[in-house]
Every structure is written in structure tokens, then in C-alpha cells.
Design goal:
The complex is a heterodimer. By secondary structure, chain A is α/β, with parallel strands linked by helices. Chain A has nine helices and nine strands. In chain A, strands 1, 2, 3, 4, 5, 6, 7, 8 and 9 form a nine-stranded mixed beta sheet that branches. By secondary structure, chain B is mainly alpha-helical. Chain B has helices spanning 10-31, 39-43, 46-79, 85-97, 100-111, 118-125, 133-159, 162-169, 174-185, 187-202, 206-211, 222-232, 234-255. The chains are: A alpha/beta, B mainly alpha.
């Protein structure tokens, strides 16, 4: 249960929108979507970085409302575009990595889900990400393309809260990113055609003061071999 | 010019003004951003009226449960002496200070489909609370109950036991004393506690989204709709915030500081 507890704590931190403790004023404030928690946590020990996690659109909204940050990572091109439209972004965003959707089921598969079409069956507890966040928008796009009508029981505000509810067995099934399923060790059902639905993670500088070390950190995140290895390990796709 | 009966230290009044500014400035900031000309139009949007309906249903049920469950507890806390009362009081107050998201998670572990009690509810009655309106009521009741209990407990303490004792001396039976003497003597506090717990339930967000999820027409209350609208429609979020704030202020002003010490 310690693992579940850790997840709960991280989820609680995400949901309450607070960043990690120990903020130093020199630290680079890095806003990352909740699906990137494990990647970012793997670098915080070596880098002067203070991460803050939330759903991508929450992060963009926080920036719009004047939150101080240096680097923004979004889990979709659309949310980065919103940040660009509200003049939050400096320079051209760069592609960091990709992710795709999977059908994740609760331990023991209580909903007897064997294919993505089973999501449309009655009497299954189905969770989705809220349409406002990238994983929800992508799931809606996928279900539309696969001509499936799913009546979900909940639209979670971010992918981690959805993944946690599947982990706790409160939901039978949900459409989440492969990386979140991997991170929580969730059982995944093979779903034809679903892996085509990918989302692109973009990274951009958003601080008012362009500093070499910020550019250097972005470059490091994109091209360093150890970080690539971490991304691969966690189930992220190639950029 | 009339002088106050005692000299008031100016520094205290100045500090109080700073505190009041801290409390009121966010509201002022919000009010000046509200798109007033379209507020009514935004509030009549079906998504908003759905959320309003869920909010009203959930908060009224929660307030009713607070009264039903809270009255005996408040009476025990005010009238019965027992070992470990301070610890019990801490548990009663805990939902007031706990981050609501933690409260929601704890509710999942307790009443979720695989929770401590929830697994038996599911197995025996096929009853699952998460992702239902009933679940949202449970979450709201959990966070609102302390407001009712503390208000009524303090009311009971102020009224003392003399009336109860007098009734007992007239050999009224204890339950009859409770119903016909004790309850009427604190009906003001009961009303204040009910209104306060209702207002708290109306504003509930964290425990609801964690325990009951978010589904339009079922569990998406006004605060949840406001939170999601903040991401892509700040104007609608502001309109809903004004509605919530207005209702809460009306309740609090109507209470005229009945809550707590008086």
C-alpha cells in the first residue's frame, strides 16, 4: 500500500496545485503536466529546478494569470498554442517527446474489458479525462474516430487523478496515457488503432528574462542521452 | 463629537485594517474582472444551470444530514463527560483543517468500492458511492458536519443545563426533555449551524472531485464547473464565482455573527 500512498500524496499535491517544497529563488521554475511527474522527479536532484505540476491547461491558465515560471511543458500542441496566444511563450516551442493512449483496467479487470469497444458496454465504471485537458481531448478524438459512444461515469481534471482511481479499483477502466499506466503498473488491454492517437509534448521558455541556463536546461531535457533513457523507460515515445 | 468610552490603541485598529484588506482584496480583484454585461446570459447556460441544480440538491441533502447526525453529537459533546473527550473533539474538528483532497482520498479508502466499509456495501447491497450524487452528498457532509456540531455545541453550553434539570426535576423523561426543552432552547444555534454547514457544503470542491468525480448533471457541482471553466472560459468561471460568493455572503450576513462565541 506504500506505493498507493505515494501516488495519493503526489495526486493530492497536483490537485491542490502546489509545487514541491524547498523553493529557492535561484531555482528554475519548471511547469510540467502531471503525466511528466516521474521524468521531472528524476532530474530534480541534479538540477536547480523547482517543478510545479498540474493539468496542461491549468498550467497555461496559471501563466496567463501571472504565475512566475521559467519553463513550460505541455502535453499537447493545442495547450501550448493557448500559451502562445496569451503571449506567455518566448521563442519557438520545441518537441520534447510523445505519448499515446491505452485502455487501462483495474486490478483483476472487474469490468471484463477485452477490447476498446467494451467501454461502450453498460454497467461498466468508465473514467475519462475532462475534455478541457489534453488526455480528455485526445480520448474524445479517438472514440469519435473509432465510432464509439461511451457514457463515462466521471471526467477527471487530470490524467493522474484518473489513473489513481483505476489503481484503487474505483473505476473499471479508463483511457489514459501509456506512461501513466506504466508508472502505476496498471494492466493494459490491447486496443487496435488506439496507439495512433498520440500527443506531442512541447517545451518552451516562458520566463520574462531569457537566461542561458534556461536554454541550456531545455536543450538538456531534449537531447541528453540519460533523459532519453528515462523517457524510454517510462514509456514515452520518440520525439 | 462623541468619544469612545475607552481609548482605543490606534495600532490595533491599523493592524485590523490590514487584515481586513487581506480578506477583501481578492474579492475586489475578482469583481473588477467580472464581465457584468454577460453574467446573466452565462449563468443561464445549460451547463451552468445543471451544475447549479446538482449543487442545490447536494448542499441541501448535506445540510439535512448535518442536522440529523450532528445534533446528537453536539449534545454528547456539550452534556456528557467521558474520558478522551479532547481526542474526540479533535476528530470532530479534523475535516475543518484537513485539505479537502485528502478528505476525499480518505473517503475513497473507507467508502470506495474497495474501501474498508465500501467493499461490503458493494458486495451486500450492490451500493457504490463514488461517482454518484449520493457520494457527492457524503463528501459535502463530511466537510460540513464540524461547522454544525461546533455551532450547536457552543449554543448548548451557553444555555447551560438548568432548564434541562428543571424539566428532569418535573420528572419528564430524558428523551422528552431533549425534544421539548433542549432543542427549543438552542433553535437559534441549530438554524445558524444548519445555514453554515449548508454554505460550506455549497462551496465544497476538493473532497467532491476526489471522492465523487466529475459528471455533468450527477456530480458536477458549481465549484467543479467553476474550476473546469477557469481553464478555457474564465468569463463563465467568474460569473459562477460571483453567484457562489453572493449566496455565501447573504447566508453569513443573515447569521449576524451567530457562529462561535456569542
Amino acid at each position: 500500500m506504500t506505493r498507493a500512498l505515494k501516488i495519493v500524496l503526489v495526486t493530492a499535491a497536483i490537485a491542490s496545485g502546489c509545487s514541491a517544497t524547498g523553493v529557492s529563488s535561484d531555482d528554475i521554475v519548471l511547469m510540467a503536466p502531471s503525466s511528466m511527474v516521474d521524468v521531472i522527479e528524476s532530474i530534480v536532484d541534479d538540477q536547480p529546478v523547482t517543478p510545479t505540476y498540474a493539468g496542461s491547461s491549468s498550467l497555461v491558465a496559471q501563466l496567463r494569470d501571472g504565475a512566475r515560471a521559467d519553463i513550460l511543458i505541455t502535453a499537447s500542441r493545442e495547450t501550448m498554442q493557448v500559451a502562445i496566444d496569451t503571449n506567455s511563450v518566448l521563442g519557438e516551442p520545441r518537441l520534447l517527446t510523445t505519448n499515446h493512449l491505452v485502455v487501462a483496467v483495474a486490478d483483476g479487470n472487474p469490468g471484463a474489458i477485452t477490447a476498446i469497444a467494451d467501454l461502450a458496454q453498460p454497467n461498466r465504471l468508465v473514467g475519462m479525462c475532462s475534455i478541457e485537458v489534453p488526455c480528455g481531448a485526445l480520448a474524445a478524438e479517438a472514440l469519435h474516430a473509432l465510432e464509439l459512444t461511451v457514457s463515462a461515469d466521471t471526467f477527471e481534471p487530470n490524467v493522474r487523478s484518473l489513473a489513481t482511481k483505476i489503481l484503487l479499483g474505483e473505476l473499471d477502466v479508463g483511457l489514459i496515457y501509456r506512461t501513466d499506466a506504466d508508472a502505476l503498473g496498471l494492466e493494459v488491454v490491447e486496443a487496435d488503432g488506439l496507439s495512433e492517437f498520440t500527443t506531442e509534448y512541447l517545451i518552451a521558455s516562458v520566463s520574462g528574462r531569457p537566461e542561458p541556463e534556461i536554454e541550456a536546461l531545455i536543450e538538456h531535457l531534449i537531447s541528453s542521452a540519460p533523459i532519453r533513457a528515462v523517457l524510454d523507460n517510462l514509456g514515452f515515445g520518440p520525439p | 463629537m462623541s468619544r469612545p468610552p475607552t481609548r482605543q490603541p490606534r495600532i490595533l485598529i491599523g493592524s485590523a485594517a490590514v487584515a481586513l484588506t487581506l480578506l477583501m482584496l481578492p474579492l475586489a480583484g475578482m469583481l473588477q474582472r467580472v464581465p457584468w454585461s454577460t453574467v446573466l446570459e452565462r449563468l443561464s447556460d445549460p451547463a451552468v444551470t445543471d451544475a447549479l441544480r446538482v449543487s442545490i440538491v447536494v448542499s441541501l441533502w448535506a445540510a439535512a444530514l448535518c442536522v440529523i447526525l450532528g445534533l446528537p453529537l453536539a449534545w454528547v459533546m456539550a452534556r456528557v463527560d467521558f474520558i478522551g473527550k479532547n481526542v474526540v473533539r479533535a476528530f470532530v474538528m479534523l475535516p475543518m483543517v484537513l485539505p479537502p483532497v485528502v478528505a476525499g482520498t480518505a473517503l475513497l479508502f473507507a467508502l470506495g468500492r474497495r474501501g474498508l466499509l465500501g467493499q461490503w456495501l458493494d458486495r451486500w447491497f450492490g451500493l457504490t458511492l463514488p461517482f454518484t450524487t449520493a457520494g457527492a452528498v457524503v463528501a459535502a457532509t463530511f466537510v460540513a458536519l464540524p461547522f454544525f456540531v461546533t455551532t450547536v455545541e457552543s449554543g448548548l453550553r451557553q444555555h447551560g443545563e438548568s432548564l434541562d434539570e428543571a424539566a428532569a426535576a418535573c420528572s419528564a423523561n430524558p428523551m422528552s426533555t431533549f425534544i421539548h426543552v433542549t432543542i427549543p432552547s438552542v433553535r437559534g444555534a441549530i438554524g445558524a449551524g444548519a445555514a453554515l454547514s449548508w454554505a460550506r457544503a455549497l462551496g465544497e470542491f476538493g473532497a467532491t472531485v476526489t471522492f465523487a468525480g466529475n459528471l455533468g448533471g450527477r456530480t458536477r457541482t458549481l465549484p467543479l464547473a467553476t474550476f473546469l471553466a477557469l481553464e478555457n472560459d474564465p468569463g463563465a468561471a467568474l460569473a459562477m464565482s460571483v453567484l457562489l460568493m453572493t449566496v455565501s455572503l447573504i447566508v453569513l450576513i443573515a447569521l449576524r455573527g451567530r457562529w462561535g462565541m456569542r
